[in-house]
Amino acid sequence: MFERGKKEDGMDDxxxxxxxxxxxxxxxxxxxxxxxxxxxxxxxxxxxxxxDVRGDEDLRIEGDISGTVQLKNSxxxxxxxxxxxxxxxxxSITVYGTTEGDLYATERINVxxxxxxxxxxxxxxxxxxxxxxxxGSIEMDQDAVDKxxxxxxxxxxxxxxxxxxxxxxxxxxKEATSLNRPSGAG
Amino acid sequence: MSxxxxxxxxxxxxxxxxxxxxxxxxxxxxxxxxxxxxxxxxGAASTxxxxxxxxxRCRVEIADxxxxxxxxxxxxxxxxxEELAAMAESLLPAHHGDDDALDLVFCWDLPNYLKAKPxxxxxxxxxxxxxxxxxxxxxxxxxERTMPERPGRFVPTDDVMLVNRGAxxxxxxxxxxxxxxxxxxxxxxxxxxxxxLANGMQEFLFxxx
Lengths: 186, 209
What we know:
The complex is a heterodimer of chains A (186) and B (209). Helix content of chain A is 11%, strand content 40%. Chain A is mainly beta and 186 residues long. Chain B has six helices and ten strands; from the N terminus they run H-E-H-E-H-H-E-H-E-E-E-E-E-H-E-E. Classes of the chains: A mainly beta (186), B alpha/beta (209).
């Protein structure tokens, strides 16, 4: 389900925004996260999730997600096959597929050719490639971005607190997940 | 004004030339250093435009009116005034009250592709979302009798000129709206400034009264 996969060749996705792996030659080495090892978690194309996805590593979505996606300190790529009907929070968001919902990024949002985005975008830097389809508002005013991201963060924390007892402390967590069922049915 | 008719073939376009649009440049210069602005772009989103607007404090709404056959649907002859008003509402971003009022609207060449009644309905819907004194920027076909069959995809260059990256090869008759036509169609707006551009279009700035 949440496969570990190296990024496909030729896809200039969120790797542009990934910081260099920390250089700690003498410090004790902790197990590498997917981000540090240059890999990212992948939600495959046959996977449908109805609920919240949270995590602290880079993620690529090729499946169908309804709910919210929160990767506050990591990069999210919505692949060509990905369909996300959710509010999304991440460090950077790169869209090749379809999204319906608001997108929040602390660094950057890129919408690529043939992507379809319907909703509002909040990020200090936004790129929309020719051939992408976008309808909605784009907030680039830094004060408003900070305010929106702060508010969104608080909402995320409250939401997390509400669900705390139900959420396993996994790197990527799903709730009310329904596999191979039409989204909205669960 | 003539109605929009059948398309005729046109010689393939070479690399599009950058067009000096003094009123567009003026608007961009005024945005620099101004307070927060709320802008509506009726065209498709483009990275050059967002980069340009991103220099100032602004929120940009993208309506992309030409997508989903928005123009064709509004131009259907038998549509009533009420239906046109509702359609214009549905094509524009949601309005959240006076705090959210529009300061500036980029129409580009879109008015050329709307008949008088739909254009009037669209401008009324925009007026309901805009603050008094808001500016509307438009490019109206003036000298040429024909125009590309679809609206262009205008993007700004680094030196704040405009390039049409999406000019269609086929041409249709242009409505050639005159200033008097536009005053009549766009009740509630006044013509602030007009410039004739090198490509034969007129660049208009309308102001909401």
